[in-house]
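Amino Acid Chain and Its Fold in Token Form
===========================================
What this section holds: a protein sequence and its matching fold, both as plain text.
Structure line: whole-number tokens from a learned vocabulary of local backbone shapes, matched to residues.
Purpose: to set a sequence beside its fold so the mapping can be learned.
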Amino acid sequence: MNRLKRPADPKPYTSVVPRPLPHRSPGLPIVALIQVAACLLLAGPVQAQDGEFRVALEMIVFLQLAPEESTEDLMHASPDLPPPEIWPAPLELPDSDSATPGPPAGLLALTRAQFALDGIWLSMRRSAGYRPLAHFAWAMPAQWSGEPIPLRLSTLAAGPLPFSGLASLEEERFVHLALDLRMPAVEEDVGEYRIRERRRLLLGEVHYFDHPRFGAIARLFRYRPRPEAGD
């Protein structure tokens, strides 16, 4: 008498599944790529004691290209931002010969050596459906109280950006990212494309902020500063 084999228990799924894209299929490969990246980043949790690390965020902002349309009209800055009672007063993006304001006091701009999403960046550069625009990473102050610190993304760039944006991390029970990105629209009756969202983040998760014409990918992680020489 043959015994029926009991089906194996499903493996636990620890990654973040990005929301389905409401527009056409070129975005799907990026969703798959983000899922793979999330699994790899969550495979080994970062172990650190309080005071040994800073909460940090890595972000990629990119265009979603339509083959039949030119994207040259998108490559202009949009300085308009939300009201000052919500965010700091608007700041014009710098000209090529102007000094770029630095990030808020206490925030630390990180270098490419601390990036973990380079695989997604390179895949976008090779893809005909996407154009990566900016890749940032920054760490919160060492003794961060959890209060929001709005960061104008242009202060992390070496030159003018083709979009304007503000990002703010805050911590209550969980860390949340408030993101506001604006980009000029190609269509005359649209004016601008905008992503405005507040979302809870967990360490190691990779999140996709969706829009039919551009998007952002964000990852929350722990940054451990290198010890000073002689320590």
